[in-house]
Design brief:
This protein is α+β, with helices and mostly antiparallel strands. The chain has eleven helices and eight strands. The chain starts with a helix and ends with a helix.
Length: 317
């Protein structure tokens, strides 16, 4: 089951309890499934088309409860295996004028009077805006599995509807963008926070929790990776400077003779050569008497300075 299926399944069981929101949901379902059609002579047809059985049951019940209407159920495009690929819910013909009035589905300026976006009164309340988006998701939404990426998209045919959906999302603090596709428009949100806010608004609380869990795991993993990289860098630096120290000591021994090194330098120099992988603290512990890390550091530094000064005095070869 894809994450889209999981979310739609959950939303199909999240009952809509307010009358105002039910209007917004039915309106979104009609508009986004292209269910308002002009039949000529001032007559219209109304339907909701969905691709999942659970979603069709949801809208059937919603229309029944909020408008008191029983839609006719028709199975569309059954494939050769007999599997249903879409279900159409048609509103009873004699109810169409009343439903269109109730959902403000008239637009005198649009072609054949068919609106492409909801009337402002439908999405006036914040609760109804969330309901409209929930319904839009049930009809045309897609959400990626959070393990893979954070992405939520709503598809629609008309640029005006795309604009409307992205405006609704912005009003709900979801950062959405619109992109043109061959078959229409896609409104999308691509950050974890926006996807999470959308799921909360739509009422998919279980899905939101699983998204948040993935988010926490990903954050932890990133943090661990950062720390490991940091450790690796430190180790690399330490190995590099230990190698440099040994090289300086060998150079001094060649130039001055090991026994001619100052007394304070001899012990640490031979310990360094004998323990090329030891840390400064470990070298300090091997000294007699033991000395601290900063003591070891300052001695090795003085040796490095000596080596550098001698190299500077030598003519370039
Ligand atoms: Zn409402």
């Amino acid at each position: 089951m894809s994450f889209t299926d999981t979310v739609k399944e959950e939303l199909s069981h999240a009952e809509c309890t307010r009358h105002c929101c039910a209007r917004a949901e039915v309106c979104a379902a009609i508009l986004l499934s292209g269910g308002l059609s002009f039949r000529g002579r001032g007559r219209y047809g109304l339907s909701i088309t969905v691709s999942r059985a659970a979603v069709s049951r949801y809208f059937y019940t919603l229309v029944k409860r909020s408008l008191g209407l029983s839609c006719e159920i028709r199975t569309l495009r059954a494939n050769r295996l007999g599997e249903t690929s879409a279900v159409e819910l048609s509103f009873p013909e004699d109810s169409v004028p009343r439903v269109m009035d109730e959902l403000c589905l008239h637009d005198e300026n649009a072609l054949f009077g068919v609106p492409v976006r909801p009337h402002p009164s439908i999405v006036e309340n914040a609760c109804c805006r969330a309901a409209f988006l929930k319904s839009a998701f049930l009809i045309t939404g897609y959400i990626s599995s959070p393990e893979k990426e954070y992405a939520l998209t709503l598809s629609c045919a008309a640029p005006d509807m795309a604009k409307c959906l992205s405006e609704l999302m912005h009003e709900m603090d979801i950062s959405a963008s619109v992109s043109r596709r061959r078959s229409g428009y896609v409104v999308y949100a691509k950050d974890a926070e926006s996807v999470s806010v959308f799921l909360t608004l739509a009422g998919a609380h279980t899905a939101r929790l699983s998204l948040e869990n993935v988010r926490i795991m990903k954050d932890l993993k990133n943090q661990t990776n950062r720390l490991t990289n940091c450790d690796n860098n430190n180790i690399e630096r330490a190995v590099h400077s230990a190698a440099q120290q040994s090289e300086d000591i060998r150079f001094l021994a060649r130039e001055l003779g090991f026994d001619h090194l100052p007394e304070w330098a001899r012990e640490i120099a031979s310990l360094r050569l004998e323990n090329p992988e030891a840390s400064l603290t470990e070298l300090g512990a091997l000294c007699d008497p033991p000395i601290g890390k900063s003591g070891v550091n300052s001695r090795l530094r003085r040796l490095a300075d000596m080596a550098r000064r001698i190299k500077e005095q030598q003519p370039d070869s």
